[in-house]
Amino acid sequence: TAHYNNLVNTADSHNSLWLGNTTVGAGLPINYAIDDLRQSGDSIIELSGIFSGTLSWLFETYDGSSKFSELLLSALAQGITEPDPREDLSGRDVQRKLLILARKAGFELALEDIDCQNLVPEALQTLSTNDFLARANELDEYFATALSEANGKDACIRYVARFQHNQKTGISAKVSLEVLPQSDAFANLTPCDNIFQISSHWYQDNPLIIRGPGAGRDVTAGGLHSDLVKICQQLAHKQSQVKIKGIN
What we know:
The chain has 10 helices and 6 strands. It is of the alpha+beta class.
């Protein structure tokens, strides 16, 4: 937290421009939305959603007709997972993204303040990548049971990030596998899509939702281009202000 605050303060004190919309959601304007709400006088109460395109694909696709390990290996072959799928299954990527958004929303938070459910059994966490892949079938029983229990409730399983700020109880933050009703906004995504839900003082009864592809070269490049355009616009504005002062 101290390092992050130092970066922000240093950038501000030097009047520097520092944007990073693609750090979460690729080209989706989630960082912009939070910035705009705060700058307009709103305050964030809750942030939640499905922040991983990989985990979105896995749990939207997993219906019990194939074993979870088979889907995982298929996702690896298609380039949907990291070269070591444990990077995705650990939840750390989702944990980091929730941290970024919570800080963007104005809260002081450290990574360890966010509870993170690692979906990889402890016995498989320290293996080499090849050994893990050879034993990936050891994941099957856990996920088959979780899916069966969810199906019995006419529900589904999704890996969800949640941040909440309560005036009385303070901050709570976690990323974990959840059982959701089929009617939930997080339950019916296009595989690989991300979804972000923002609850604020202005958007309490009907939260603001941003949804779409959370990965991909085109959308990520578009997000970077958007940041560059904003920086160019701000630099041009600063230069015009300098010229006006010079005239005066």
